[in-house]
Amino acid sequence: MEYKIAVCDDCVSDADYLEMLVMRWAEKVRGQVRILKFNSARTLLFHYEEEKDFDILLLDIEMDGQNGVELAKEIRRNNDVVQIVFITGFPDYMDQGYEVDALHYLLKPVCEEKLYDVLGRAAARLKKTERCLKVTFDRQTDLVPFDRIQYIEARKQFVEIHTESQIYRMKVSLGEMENSLDQRFFRCQRSFLVNLCFVVRIKNSFVILGNGEEIPIGRGKAKEIARAVIEFF
User: Fold this and answer.
1) Which tens digit of pLDDT belongs to each residue from 121-175?
2) CA dist., res. 181 & res. 17, Å (int)
3) Can you tell me the distance from the alpha carbon of 66 to that of 135, in angstroms, rounded to the nearest whole number?
């Protein structure tokens, strides 16, 4: 797995030092990392608006303008998956970490072994969290948890990802999309993938979802879908 990691620190030397340690950790665990460095909360948030697929955030707390805790609160509004680690020269902010489910606090100067331990814990947490679909469209990236996707429909060169509250679009083929998903998604018709978790009734020519929506299925697919539902659950 490749981990996308943000380092946000207004001290260039501290940010460079963290980057070096993260690269060493990746070599040690034979992993892959992509590191992006930011010198302020504002620049990170600006980038985050278009790319929300960060796995780990290493945030300095004492920065000019918005501090690391305030930055974490903004990101936590719509992202429960990303692992947040605070870097600080003072322990005064530790109580506030509970508000954003921070994984850990590391005191400056950062100890190499302690950082390795925290990154290992972050990686373990990420493996246990709900899988998400990375949806990129119109220069914006969203992470959509699998368990919120009801069905996916192919529309010419795009697909539409339907959740209970929103529809996302992505320029990709349905076949490519299918390869990014797990066994809960069933190709019920040439243009549709349905999440078996939302199927409440199966008819000869369509399935009914929990919200009452009807999704068409191919000829002879009813028994196949029924079997898939039984095997999945």
Assistant:
1) 999 888 766 678 889 888 888 888 888 999 999 998 899 999 988 999 999 999 9
2) 37
3) 28
Give residue 75's pLDDT band: very low, low, confident or very high (50, 70, 90).
very high
Q: What is the pLDDT of residue 99?
A: 66
**Distance, CA of 62 to CA of 9 (rounded, Å):** 8
Model confidence pLDDT, tens digit, residues 176-232: 999 888 889 999 999 999 999 999 999 999 999 999 999 999 998 999 999 888 877
pTM confidence score: 0.63
**Burial class of 104 by CB neighbour count within 10 A (0 to 12, 13 to 18, 19+):** middle
DSSP 192-227: EEEEGGGEEEE-SSEEEETTS-EEE--TT-HHHHHH
Best CA proximity match to 228, nearest among 188, 179, 189, 176: 188
Length of the chain measured in residues: 233
The DSSP string of 18-71 is HHHHHHHHHHHHT-EEEEEEESSHHHHHHHHTTB---SEEEEESS-SSS-HHHH
CB 216 within 8 A of CB 189: yes
What the block records as the tokens of 71 is: 């930055």
Structure-token pair, residue 67: 């501090």
